[in-house]
Amino acid sequence: MLDSKKVSLGIAPIGWTNDDMPDLGKENTFEQCVSEMALAGYAGCEIGNKFPADREVLKRALDLRGLTVCNQWFSTFLISRPFEETAGPFEEKLDTLKYLGARVIGVSEQSYSIQGKKQPIFEGKHVMDDREWNLLCEGLNRLGKIANDRQMKLTFHHHMGTVVQDEKEIDRLMAHTDPDMVYLLFDSGHLSFCGIDPEKILNRYVSRVGHVHLKDLRSSVAAEAKAKRLSFLDGVRGGTFTVPGDGDVDFKPIFEILGGRGYEGWVVVEAEQDPAKANPFEYAKRARAYLRAAAGI
Ligand SMILES: O=C1C[C@@H](O)[C@H](O)[C@@H](O)C1=O
Ligand SMILES: [Co+2]
Asked: 20: Cβ below 6 Å to ligand 1?
């Protein structure tokens, strides 16, 4: 069980409108999305591309509904572009997130990523050489220090189709980054889809986890996506992921480890699927009820 004094519950807007495939949920407005998040009982949210760009307007809209921003995705290009090209926008994003009340930023290395490409997600992703590993880890340490100086945490999102996808890659990243500067963004859905037991990774790195994405996997749909050599996004469209409690991930050990080892921070329901098939408000409410019963928050 999680301690609700230490852990806050948020939700990502990706169930309403998908940033990677904006046709999914294009009819859902920002106001509908945040109102339904609040009505379903969430304390916070991540930021999607329908959210107002003006941070004051955004903050007012969220304050009105009792929501806080807990994180936002940030793409780095540390192994393919000069460091400064990532560092400048990173500093700006940190300032905005801090103003909005977040204490973490969710980083994903997007150099050579195939997550948005029309190619089979289990084939041909980029594998880093030693030089690229150094660029990534040193770059993350430097960005982590910039975040740390602003009382923010850099959390790294392992992700299907990216340079940090599998267990060995997560291990190498954790081993070669500074534990005081670089934290892990644990995503139960990406680990499960990759064929990695989320419990194993969490047990190993819970002391470095700075943010949590709770994503469930429909294993039969995921297996079909793999067998049919679908792209990541076509798999999502077909229903690879769903809200926690609705798929095949065993969340019990995940909650035991987070609770038992004193995780403090946000856990976020992040379940991208087609809103025409899975009504986002209904699924947000289902996940809320499941987390109250299964995680005690
Ligand atoms: O954290 C995430 C952000 C999404 O845009 C992404 O594609 C999704 O899979 C995810 O885990
Ligand atoms: Co995620």
From this structure: yes
Tell me the one-letter amino acid at 141. Answer: N
- What CATH number is associated with residue 261? 3.20.20.150
Cα 244 from Cα 39, distance rounded (Å): 18
Residues facing 269 on adjacent strands: 11, 214
In a domain? residue 2? no
- The reply to whether 1 falls in a domain is no
| Atom in ligand 1 nearest the alpha carbon of residue 106 | 1
* Domain enclosing residue 248, as ranges: 7-295
Question: pLDDT for 86-135, tens place per residue?
Answer: 999 999 999 999 999 999 999 999 999 999 999 999 999 999 999 999 99
Distance 190 CA to ligand 2 centre (A): 7
Ligand 2 is an ion; its neighbours by CB within 5 Å are 187, 213, 270
pTM of the model: 0.98
Q: Is 70 helix (H, G, I), strand (E, B) or coil?
A: strand
Q: Look at residue 86 in the predicted model and tell me its pLDDT.
A: 98
* Ligand 1 pocket member 103 (CB < 6 A): no
Ligand 1 centroid–CA 33 distance in Å is: 17
Identify which of 11, 20, 194, 242 to mutate to test ligand 1's pocket (most ligand atoms within 8 A of the CB).
Answer: 20
Beta-carbon neighbour count of residue 293 at 10 Å?
9
57 alpha carbon – ligand 2 mean position (Å) = 26
Structure tokens that stand for 78 in this block: 């540390």
Give the other-Cβ count within 10 Å of 296's Cβ. Answer: 13
Asked whether residue 51 is domain-assigned, the answer is: yes
Environment class of 274 (CB within 10 Å of its CB; exposed 0-12, middle 13-18, buried 19+) = middle
ipTM over 0.95: yes
How many whole angstroms from 283 Cα to the centroid of ligand 1? 17
The structural domain count of the chain equals 1
User: Cα(45)–Cα(37) distance, rounded to whole angstroms?
Assistant: 8
